[in-house]
Amino acid sequence: MAKLSDGRPDVADLLGLGSHSARKSYYPELSARLDELERERNRYKWLFEHAVHGIFQGRMNHGILAANPALAHMLGYEDPQQVLWSQTDLAEQLFVGGAAELARINAVLREGHGLFGYETRLRRRDGSCIDVLMNLLLKPDEEGLVEGFVADITERKQAQLRQQQLNVELEQRVAARTAELLEANRHLQQEIRQRERIQCELREARDAAEAANQSKDKYLAAASHDLLQPLNAARLLISTLRERPLEASEANLVERTHQALEGAEDLLADLLDIARLDSRAIRPDLAVYRLDELLAPLASEFQPVAEAVGLGLRVRIPRLAVRTDFRLLTRILRNFLSNACRYTGQGRVLLGCRRRGAHLLIEVWDTGRGIAADKLEEIFLEFNQLDADRAAERKGVGLGLAIVERIARMLDYRIQVRSQPGRGSVFSIEVPLAEYVAPEPVARPRETLGNPLPGRRVLVVDNEPDIQQSMQALLAQWGCEVRVAAGLAEARAQLVGWPAELLLVDYHLDQGANGCDLVQNLRGESALPLPAVMITAERSEQCRRQLHEQGIPLLNKPVKPGKLRAVLSQFLS
């Protein structure tokens, strides 16, 4: 190996290039190595200049030695040479924290050789600040050389700040809404307590009303019997007087008394029916009835009524059957016929039927004064009567059609009214049809001419002496042979040797006895069928059902003489 004059080896010899042969041997390899190093240097240079984040090299006690364009643009400069600050410039122009922050960074680097994830704020050229995330790496073998990587996190910080603000606002809104809900809940609890108090008061008021209503019903039931008994006796006596020849002045007084009693009876009966309908004491008892069973008794009842006021009554009864409550439907039709006879001055009244699919339309036509179109709805109101200027011609207080409306609503029947003032009215009710079953053939009774009542034997059983006397006087005037009894023992005694053809029995008798038991006992003791008619002020469903099961027709007190005569004629013909 060649040596220099001072004895040191030659550099060429150290590199293996001391001789020509050696140079020729290692040159290609060295050239390739130098090219590779140049390419690597260019690649790092390209990455350094085109990196997205800022990159710099420097020493904290001297300043920044090199910086890439991204860092310059991040800080608001166009040329990286403009950010090659000294240590003093770093403290004054770059770090917002100044010399104190720079000293803390140096201390951390000396202790740990690196600072990673360090968030700080840097000044820009225009005086504004940006938030950055820095990673600093100290190279100990290069005398404090620091490589730094800087990422702009301003948007993230602003987003975090906005998120914090939103969180604060959300918490404030939640707190405000919570306060509102608490206040609303407090008001709601107050309302609930108030409603509970009101409901409690309403329940107490309802219970009191129901108790009062029950008390009223009991009172009406008790009072009706006491009121209807003397009214029934008076009606029978007045009817007896009406059929006797009297002087004109006396006949006028009797007629006026009859009208007053009739109005009182109708009013009391209507009040009792309204009370029972409102208290739901009436329950429909649906069954299938032939139209002749329904309409024939009404025709017999109202034929003399129509004749008495100079009207003609025509009845058309087809061979059909309906499913209904006999008593309630009869109550509706009786009201229609009564109003037709009452408010028709001259002409006629027609009771007829029309078939409408699965229903039957039962209609009552009259040729009366008629009703104006704007008054048709009012006639079904309680205590409402039309033609107030003709009050002297009316009876009652206008409860009849109100009762009709309630019964129809209970049965779910439709009522219709058509009318033309001056020409008349048509009241109709729609009833469901049922399968018609023809009546069993019976032996036709011997036809009699004229009045069938004279000479017929009738036993009247009633515990009221006034009723006994009144009924006896009226029936005797009709030509009947009448005997009276107050109970079962007297009835037995009267029937000895005197076979009665018909029993007229009161339902309520003395000592808790009732007319149904009396009729059963007399029928059991007699070889004759003993037809019977029950007369009572009792209007309960139990009483009506019991009489229906035993096949005993019912007449409610006060008994209308015309209806009583029609029933007697039907039984004794």
UniProtKB/TrEMBL annotation:
The Histidine kinase domain, residue ranges: 222-435
Reactions catalysed: ATP + protein L-histidine = ADP + protein N-phospho-L-histidine
Family annotation (SMART domains): HATPase_c (SM00387), HisKA (SM00388), REC (SM00448)
Alphabetical list of PROSITE patterns matching this protein: HIS_KIN, PAC, RESPONSE_REGULATORY
Pfam families: HATPase_c, HisKA, PAS_8, Response_reg
Keyword hit for Coiled coil: yes
Keywords linked to the UniProt accession: Coiled coil, Kinase, Phosphoprotein, Transferase
Top EC group: transferase
Membrane spanning residue stretches: none
EC number annotated for this UniProt entry: 2.7.13.3
Domain PAC: 116-165
Superkingdom per UniProt: Bacteria
Residue positions, PTM 4-aspartylphosphate: 506
Coiled coil: 181-222
InterPro entries in UniProt: HATPase_dom, His_kinase_dom, HisK_dim/P_dom, PAS, PAS-assoc_C, Sig_transdc_resp-reg_receiver
Name by which UniProt lists this protein: histidine kinase
Species: Geopseudomonas aromaticivorans
